[in-house]
Design goal:
This protein folds into three domains: about 5-85, Arc Repressor Mutant, subunit A; about 90-160 and about 265-305, Periplasmic binding protein-like II (D-Maltodextrin-Binding Protein, domain 2); about 165-260, Periplasmic binding protein-like II (D-Maltodextrin-Binding Protein, domain 2), CATH 3.40.190. It is α/β, with parallel strands linked by helices. Strands 9-10-8-11-7-12 form a six-stranded mixed β-sheet. A five-stranded mixed β-sheet has the order 4-3-5-13-6. It starts with a helix and ends in a 13-residue tail after the last helix. The protein contains eleven helices and 13 strands. Helix content is about 40%, strand content about 25%. Helix 1 crosses helix 3, helix 1 crosses helix 4 (about 60-85) and helix 2 (about 20-25) packs across helix 3. Strand 9 (about 200-205) and strand 10 (about 210-220) form a beta hairpin.
């Protein structure tokens, strides 16, 4: 069995929604398509599709194989194009994922120059404040904040993200400065979270342990930019990444508070599949991103200078 041909046929079957549709798309006979699908199921010793008289549905194993097969075939096509061109110039479409704030402020601005350097490449940037399924959503490179679960993905640490609590001097003069996280219950808090109304902020206790303090939002917005603007106008206390408000802190527009209770910084990683880093587009963009951030130092003292591969 030609495994690549069988995988390509399997992907065609799923995309077409039927064996007959795949046969028409590949100018093959229905018998040939059915034979390749059956051979693939025998090879993996599992059922990949559920066949009914009206439609075709993937099994759980089939869903996993479909995502992997589609990515493998796409990478193979790009490698073939690069080799046939006689150089490693990236081609095709690169799919990136990043947290919304980092994506808008630190990734999107460097994309035009990258695309000018590599005109044969196109980019999709997905802004998502959630862990993306890189296989299911066909993502080549993803930026993710926080500790990572064990997985097949390769992670390259880029930076440490320090979350801080701050407020405008006018607010602190009017309402006083909280001395402990528990005193935030007496203050107007500006909250960014997945759902409106309430949430929690992480702090470090006096003995070094971490705790979560429930926060009742005076103002909830699902965008940190808008919350920082409200904090500068004296609306209340906000919790944000330190790099986002460096200029505001330096200019005195915001004041950092509860510094002795700040939690440990969270790592920022660049994630990719091991097989995908060999593709020119992923390798070249990863190097470009890191070089641009090293030059601009967007994360300050805890930034890329301390990043480890």
């Amino acid at each position: 069995m030609d495994q690549f041909a069988a995988l390509a046929t399997f992907v065609r079957v799923v995309d077409a929604g039927s064996l007959s549709g795949a046969a028409r798309a590949t100018a093959s006979s229905l018998t040939s398509v059915s034979r390749q699908l059956s051979a693939l199921e025998r090879h993996f010793a599992t059922r990949l599709v559920k066949r009914t008289t009206r439609r075709l549905a993937l099994t759980e194993d089939g869903r996993i194989l479909y995502g992997r097969a589609k990515a493998i075939l796409a990478e193979l096509g790009e490698i073939e194009r690069a080799l046939s061109a006689g150089h490693a110039e990236p081609t095709g479409r690169l799919r990136l994922s990043a947290p919304s704030l980092i994506g808008r402020l630190l990734v999107a601005p460097i994309l035009p120059q990258f695309l000018q350097r590599h005109p044969a490449l196109s980019i999709d940037l997905m802004l998502a404040d959630r862990p993306v399924d890189m296989i299911e959503e066909d993502i080549h490179l993803a930026l993710r904040i926080g500790q990572l679960p064990d997985s097949h993905l390769v992670a390259r640490k880029l930076a440490d993200i320090q979350m801080i609590v701050c407020a405008a001097p006018a607010y602190l003069e009017r309402r006083g400065r909280p001395r402990t996280p528990e005193q935030l219950d007496e203050h107007d808090c500006l909250l960014f979270s997945d759902t409106p109304g309430a949430g929690s902020w992480r702090f470090r206790t006096e003995n070094g342990a971490e705790c979560k303090i429930p926060i009742s939002a005076k103002l909830w917005i699902n965008g940190l930019d808008a919350l920082v603007a409200a904090a500068r106008d004296g609306a209340g206390i906000v919790r944000v990444p330190s790099w986002q408000v460096r200029a505001d802190l330096a200019a005195g527009r915001l004041t950092r508070i509860l510094t002795s209770h700040e939690p440990a910084p969270a790592p920022l990683h660049l994630l990719f599949e091991a097989t995908r880093l060999a593709a020119p587009k992923t390798r070249i963009f990863a190097d470009y991103l890191i070089s641009q951030w090293r030059a601009s130092d967007p994360f300050g003292d805890r930034g890329l200078a301390s990043a480890k591969e």
